[in-house]
Write a structure and sequence with these properties.
Layout lengths: L1 E7 L2 E7 L5 H7 L8 E4 L2 E2 L17 E7 L7 E5 L2 E9 H10 L5 E3 L5 E7 L5 E3 L2 E4 L8 E7 L7 H39 L5
Parallel strand pairs: 1-5, 9-11
Antiparallel strand pairs: 1-2, 3-4, 3-5, 6-7, 7-12, 8-9, 10-11
Helix pairs in contact: 2-3
Length: 202
Amino acid sequence: MVKVYVTTTGGRKSDLFDEGTTLREVFDAFDIDYSVATNTIDGTRIDPAGMDKSLRDWGVKDECRMSSIVKIDNAAHIDISGGSAVLVSDVSREDWERVEKYAPEMLKMIDDEGNAVFKVKIGCGGGSVNKYGVCFGSHTNEGGKATVTVILDYEVEDKIAAVKDVMGSALLDLNEIEKELPTVLKDIADKEAEIDKLITLK
């Protein structure tokens, strides 16, 4: 028998399964709707064909960790694949630069005493993230969204728990800042349009 730990958006569950049980059957046993989620087993993304492979086919012996996480639309999120975790902003790197230029005060979370407890910065080489802030480097995804990649320790079995420890609070704070940006970016666009009206090339 194999001990399977499954993490979902709503929490964590575990149970014993025969090695011949398919991944689809594991998710069904926990009543998990995996069709609308990103699914992994021991940090490896499960493609549709992989769902019908057994725990034995996946090389599992004593225990494994699976996950089925539903991505929230229009929010920063983290994708875990193999030995890396990628923090993906819902804001393009270009727009982060515009906010930094015209409304830098929106890149900070301030406590009651006026201290900055979380910051977003732009232009930090490869980028970095911790509980105090996020610094986006030059990397973006195919859609131009700002990203930060963190290399994980291959010896860590529960990669989701490890990512939560390192990046979890930063992800929540980043989303709080991003919620305000649509209005901020509209104001910036209006300012840019006004500036353009005042500049004439002769």
